[in-house]
Amino acid sequence: MGIDVTAERVIPLPCERVAAYAMDWRHDPEWTQGIRTAELTRPADGGGFGLGAEVTRTAYFLGRRIDYVLRVAGHEPGRLLDMVSVAGPMPMHVTYTFTPAPDGGTLARIRVRGDASGLYGLAAPLMGRKVRSSLVKDLRDLERRLSGV
Questions:
Q1: Fewer C-beta within 10 Å: the chain N or C terminus?
Q2: What is the pTM of this model?
Q3: Of 125, 115, 141, 149, which Cα lies nearest the Cα of 9?
Q4: What is the largest CA-CA distance in the chain?
Q5: How far apart (Å, rounded) are the C-alpha atoms in residues 33 and 42?
Q6: 99 or 115, which is more confident?
């Protein structure tokens, strides 16, 4: 059984500002639920952060420490960051998108897909709800961080 969860929020700030902050892995622990550390463990082919780069995150989810590595599979600065896990407890795919909102500001969206098989399969319904709750909080915290609230 898999999970597929999306959360979105309109943040009343320019798209470029929101995307630049959110897509910078160095800010992950500041606004992403449960993440304690994030480290660029493999630079992109051309150096720095971009397509092919890998970020290792240490997080806590449902009371357990989780170490996982996400590889950048899609990267359009200011608009899209698509990452897939290459190491960790379960296969997952995380997509961040940022588009101008119709009434101004930024429509920020996070989608998480994962294969909750094995031991995680039993907890898939709970995991889906918990992931959704975390994503909603992530977007709220992203707005607060950028707004200085």
A1: C
A2: 0.90
A3: 141
A4: 44
A5: 23
A6: 99
